[in-house]
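**Reference record**
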Amino acid sequence: MSTGTNLYHELRADLKKLLNEKVLTVLFTKKDGTKRSMICTLLPDHLPAIDKQEGDEVKPAKKQSEDSLAVWDLEAKAWRSFRIDSIVSYAPLPSSL
């Protein structure tokens, strides 16, 4: 495993920890080269309730790439993901949310 890969895994782990504690603004470069700013979190209070009714089929959890991170986009109110190597910057939002 290369040092660069270790840094990405450390950054991913650090970001995931922060997202479980705070709301962040993450600026990243999309695959098409454009920049996108996203207000996101993994705080349970902001995540959607699981809407499962009795008798619904249980689907296996989707395997996520170690190169990306799935987050809850507070503006789109949907799950989104970004590649760790595409991050330009990130910062916690003021505690107003």
User: Anything to note?
Assistant: The radius of gyration is 15 Å. Strands lie at 23-29, 35-41, 68-73, 78-83, 87-92. The longest helix spans residues 3-19. The chain is about 20% helix and 35% strand.
